[in-house]
Amino acid sequence: MGESDTPGVDHTSHVYVYVQVADRIAGQIASGRIPAGAMLPGERALMAEYGIALHTARRAVRELRDRGLVITVPAKGTFVVEQPPAD
Questions:
Q1: pTM, whole model, 2 decimals?
Q2: Rounded to an integer, what distance in angstroms lies between the CA atom of residue 5 and that of residue 49?
Q3: pLDDT digits (tens, 9 = 90+) for 50-87
Q4: pLDDT tens, position by position, 2-21
C-alpha cells in the first residue's frame, strides 16, 4: 500500500475522511490486494500514507472492524479476516 497507489483523501468531500480511508482499504481487501490474514499498517503508517491525523486513522480502523473486515489483536496488530464468498 504505497503512496503512489493510494492518492490522498479529499478533505472537501461531504464524506468523512475516516470513511474515505476505510472505503479505500475495504476496496483493497475486496480485490484481494490485501489478502485474508494480512496485517494492516499501524495507525502511524496510515497517518503518513493518507496524510491524516492519528484520531482519523484510529477511527478508520474502527470502521473496518465495525464492517467485519478486520480484527484487532491487542499488542499484535490489526488483521484482515476471511471474507465469505460473494453470492
A1: 0.86
A2: 10
A3: 999 999 999 999 999 999 999 999 999 999 999 777 66
A4: 444 556 789 899 999 999 99
57 Cβ contact list (under 8 Å, min separation 6): 18, 21, 43, 44, 46, 47, 50
Q: How far apart are CA 31 and CA 49, in angstroms?
A: 19
Q: Which of 67, 73, 1 is nearest to 34 (CA)?
A: 1
Give CA–CA dist 1/20, Å, rounded. Answer: 15
- Any idea which residue has 478508520 for its cell? 60
In 3D, which of 20, 34, 14, 22 has the Cα closest to residue 82? 34
CB 37 within 8 A of CB 79: yes
pLDDT exceeds 70 at position 41: yes
For 39, residues 6+ apart whose C-beta sits below 8 A from its C-beta are: 77, 78, 79
